[in-house]
Amino acid sequence: MSYDFEKFFDRSIDLLCIHTLDGEFKRVNGAFERVLGWSAGELHSHSSLDFVHPEDADATMTVLAHLAAGQPTLEFENRFRCKDGSYRHLRWNAHPDAEAGLVYAIARDADRTRLSQALGSNPGTGVKDRPTFDEQLEVLMRLGERMGGSLSLLLVDVDHFEEVTEKFGTTVGYEVLNELAELLVSNARRSDVVARYFGEKFALILPDTPAAGAIRFAQRLRATVMGHGWEHGNVTISVGAATLRFRKGNSDRHEQQKHKMLDDVERALRQSIDKGCNRVTHATELLAAAGV
Question: Domains of the chain by range and CATH?
């Protein structure tokens, strides 16, 4: 059996990278762009120190010195500059390969992990966790392959969420996420699956829903959130949508279709954010814009 480690590297929700012993990036995965906004090309040949918050520079240089001496680093946290100028707290695990002069590192968005854990600690929201989302997506895709029909997926992100937590604190951030979760669940059908996807992102699986229905539902969600009486200022969402149409009895290319759907919905969400937020974008719009 052969394994495609390139797919594992590129599709990880964690930030994976390879850098030199002095911190120069040699390779990063797609999570860097999704979380921080920097493309691989913008990071390559730059030192991680170029992006570290000045107050964390000394501690980061100490960690690099330990790595150069062959000592792995576990659970080190620093602030890393995003493309928009804000900073994210990243928690790093890194292991050096002194012979090759390289470091293999994994980072997680510590702020979003804490928010995700806080949201997950409240079972009253009715929101599923990420493992349950993955299981339900698999089950519903298999059902669609047997029966035919359509399956749609929505990815919902809170617009400018960092500004909410910076202005009002993380406790208010937790409250906003829980209130949004309740709105999503109350507007979804009983057959729909509402789940945490990553950080403040939510995913909704919509069985038996074609593209047009997914767009209508997403627009209704967007309008509901915008019109909700939020206690701490206005809250809006950006939504990405993607749809899979099944041919009855055809389960060929199952994994390929699943990964494509996840890629499509993330790209659609990114388009909504890039176009100014408080928008809905379906993946078919990206294909139309590309002339496909």
Answer: 5-110 (3.30.450.20), 122-289 (3.30.70.270)
